[in-house]
Amino acid sequence: MQTWLNSIVLEGNLVKLAPLEVSHIPALLKAASDRNLWELWYTSVPSAEAVESYVRTVLTEQKNGLALPFVIIDKKK
Quick check: 12 and 73 in contact, CB under 8 A? Predict the structure, then answer.
């Protein structure tokens, strides 16, 4: 399937925007575990129990040309 969605890495001094991968799941779980971010009305964060399913769903959507998921990596850590 031909698609206009292309993965790219964007990097600055403080953060890196990288294509989402299954290998990011542990870090996403850690980032979301400090509070109940999924309860905030102004953002969309899956619950800790749903992170893996969410990642696999959006990666399938990417293969189908429907999504281009990214992660933001803090370079200061």
Answer: no
